[in-house]
Predict the structure.
Amino acid sequence: MKSAVTVCLVPEASRGPFVFHDGLDVGCRAAAEHGFDGVEIFPAAADDVAAARIRPLLATHGLALAAIGTGAGFVKHGLHLVHADRAVRLQARDFIAGIVDAAGDLGAPAIVGSMQGRSGGEVPRETALAMLAEALGDLGRRAAAHGQPLLYEPLNRYETDLFNRQAEAAAFLDGQGLHAVRLLCDLFHMNIEEEEIAGALVAVGSRVGHVHWADSNRRAMGFGHTDPGPVVAALRAIRYQGWLSAEAFPWPTASEAAARTIASLRRHFAA
Ligand code: LER
Ligand code: MN
């Protein structure tokens, strides 16, 4: 398993659950100093993560790119994939497609989290799920053309009503034949929605494509009440080889959140 930390480039998300908020250079330098293997970037748009800018920066700091988030389309522009207005749905898809391509050029996957949206008004949940399936199919094919999966993230009930739990999302992806899409398992959302985090990870097994490594209160692992021991045992049991990425609040400071994250990972993954 590989360690990553989040770097947010979106001023509108300055209070969001990302560890570093002071730009790419500062974030990458700090990630490397703390000993992370890579970074996960939350850009304002695809232009922020053009390969010509990102590749040399990662090389300078000896970092890999874990994934790129697409949520700025929602946070900044109110776009999402199940919006009642078809034009907005297509704008959402284009926004994500740009990031799928930018991430693909860098050998990393893109994340569909907040951009999944939620049902409501003129869009009942069944209709929203059909819209979601179509969009994930299209974007998954695009990611596959780069040799990457598309990461779909079930969120807690306060953020979406599409899928809150991993097994239900996995059954939907299987049922729709969405084999290019893998699950992003965010331990914060799972703490709210799953009966038990470790069992939920084992149940979806090889569908796990990425993990957001955060404690129960969305602070860095070690600052809440999640017991990482069974979570790590579950990830080992399913032979997960991917990223454990700290998507957590910069509490009490970004540096202390990063240090606590690395300490939690070293404790459980010491050679
Ligand atoms: C995104 O990764 C996520 O977890 C959502 O809750 C948006 O913050
Ligand atoms: Mn997340």
In short: The pocket of manganese (II) ion (ligand 2) is lined by residues 113, 153, 186, 212, 247 (CB under 6 Å). The chain has one domain: 2-268.
